[in-house]
Recover the amino acids of this structure.
């Protein structure tokens, strides 16, 4: 059965969709459709069996490099069985790519996404208390440690979101070489950014049912002025970026600084919330120490 040569394992809201689509544009790279099969993490997907998972790569040519992108694979403690399932089914050459942005920025983007999906209704401070996964998914060393322990640092590539944003061509080339693709690499500017949460409307069953009626798009654009359509759209749009209280911001800094100290230790970097963006803009991360060589 055909299995992936590499997997983009996260982190959520760190441009993994953009990276997936850019990789899919390279000749000789076959990316799964759907982008996020979540096979090794979600019990419902796992029950479909390895034959179903292999089918995602069935149309790839023999010489293609195959990949998929499932951020659920680095969502501890939500999906605790991921690593053991991977160890039992992935080939020994499979590699992993993990993209990281400032942990607080990631958390805020995650919150916006969950708000649009109606998973959360509370203001962001309260949502953090009610939904601990908002914090957990930004604890990068915690999420990465099981992969480094199970597969070794040579098979896991850390990527900074800031580097991907500032030097997309170079980072794409580096990722392609890491996963074993040696063909031509070209960043497709026309694709833009994928899945930008701030541009999303909040889910509405009634609104979506009306909008998706046959012929409704033509009628709406013909008889309703764009200014009116925009005002209606604003009803379901988050207009202002969520603001953390100073108390919650201090709490997050304490949690993430401790996690970033471990992550930085693995890379030989002094890393914390204050300097994360500066370091990430100027550094291509790489491992210098295994997790067990650095105190948690």
């Amino acid at each position: 059965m055909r299995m992936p040569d590499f997997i983009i394992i996260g982190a959520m809201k760190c441009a993994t969709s953009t990276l997936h689509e850019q990789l899919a544009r390279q000749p000789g790279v076959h990316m799964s459709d759907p982008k996020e099969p979540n096979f090794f993490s979600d019990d419902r997907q796992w029950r479909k069996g390895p034959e179903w998972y292999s089918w995602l790569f069935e149309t790839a040519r023999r010489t293609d490099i195959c990949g998929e992108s499932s951020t659920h694979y680095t969502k501890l403690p939500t999906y605790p069985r991921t690593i053991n399932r991977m160890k039992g089914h992935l080939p020994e050459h499979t590699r992993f790519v993990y993209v990281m942005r400032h942990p607080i920025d990631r958390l805020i983007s995650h919150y916006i996404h969950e708000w649009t999906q109606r998973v959360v209704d509370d203001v962001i401070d309260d949502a953090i208390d009610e939904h601990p996964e908002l914090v957990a998914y930004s604890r990068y060393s915690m999420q990465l440690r099981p992969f480094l322990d199970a597969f070794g640092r040579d098979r896991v590539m850390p990527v900074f979101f800031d580097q991907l944003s500032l030097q997309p061509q170079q980072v794409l080339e580096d990722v392609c070489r890491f996963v074993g693709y040696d063909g031509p690499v070209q960043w497709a500017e026309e694709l833009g950014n994928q899945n930008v949460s701030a541009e999303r409307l909040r889910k509405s069953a009634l609104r979506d049912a009306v909008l998706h009626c046959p012929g409704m798009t033509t009628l709406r654009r013909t008889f309703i002025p764009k200014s009116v359509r925009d005002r209606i759209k604003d009803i379901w749009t988050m207009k202002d970026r969520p603001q953390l209280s100073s108390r919650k911001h201090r709490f997050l800094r304490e949690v993430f600084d401790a996690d970033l100290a471990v992550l930085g230790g693995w890379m030989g970097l002094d890393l914390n919330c204050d300097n994360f963006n500066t370091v990430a803009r100027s550094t291509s991360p790489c491992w210098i120490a295994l997790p067990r060589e650095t105190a948690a």
